[in-house]
Write a structure and sequence with these properties.
The protein is of the alpha/beta class and 296 residues long. The protein has 2 domains: 144 residues, NAD(P)-binding Rossmann-like Domain (Rossmann fold, 3-Layer(aba) Sandwich), CATH 3.40.50; 120 residues, 2-Layer Sandwich (Dihydrodipicolinate Reductase, domain 2). The protein contains 9 helices and 12 strands. The strands form 2 sheets. The chain has a 6-stranded parallel beta sheet, sandwiched between helices. Strand 9 and strand 10 form a beta hairpin. Helix 1 crosses helix 8 and helix 7 crosses helix 9. Keywords: Oxidoreductase. This is Putative dehydrogenase. One of its GO terms (molecular function) is oxidoreductase activity. It comes from Amycolatopsis endophytica.
Amino acid sequence: MDEPLRVGLVGAGPWAHNVHAPGLADHPATRLSAVFARREEAARELAKPYDAEVCASLDELLGQVDAVAFAVPPATQAELAAEAAKAGKHVILEKPIAADVAGAERLADAVAGAGVASLVMLTLRYATSTRDWLAGLAAAGGWRGGGVRWLSGALLDGPYAASSWRQEDGGTLADVGPHAFDLLDAALGTIERVSSAHRGPDDLWHVVFEHEGGALSSATLSLRLPLRPAVVECAVYGEHGYRTLGRRDGVAAQSYTAMLDDFAALADTGTTSHPCDVTRGLHIQRLLESTRSLAR
């Protein structure tokens, strides 16, 4: 690229501070140009170290950037990202991409209609270790089943425990469900059906999936169990044995850099299709809604 992408950041919470802002500022293909947040004081605090402009509205931000990264609750993201796409801006989306399927569909339609690039921040998928693991699974084939265990106390304490959408609206399923469901889908083939789902005490979820090709998998998830260290593991099994993938500390920043590599390449070449684009986000949104419906 001749010039770095001018990227605006919407949101000024802990995730924006810890991952989005430094990642956009440090990457050679992007520049953090502008910040917009509900609280102007928070936007100013975030923007100051990077000499980014502080905008009073989304429209003002859209007039200054080529792309927009979102670090806001799902319902807000679905509305604002659709506006950004319609304005011709490439978008970096958080998971889940919306609060419900209807919102996700409207966002996906806006992105497709505008012909802009989109990527969903499914953090683990951009890590080199994950990409190598998935490539090895695809080359071997013959996998019959698998599962994800994601158990921690992240919503009991820590930098993201105060997040209102996580505590009040989404909880474990909305926060780490997209990561877990996406990994199983990528490892074992498209999830065609959520066959059972149960939510127990401590927001503990047990979900069973049926995959295209006949594989079965399960996800056991909670962010309200006081486990130290947290348990994060994806495993598959079949005719070539048993293979696992864990999560390493520091993966968020590394994955964000890798995601920006892909994002800049999409924008530079005019490509809009990617394994983690908005259509992937819509697929995951539908799985989340099916899971919630079965657990009622």
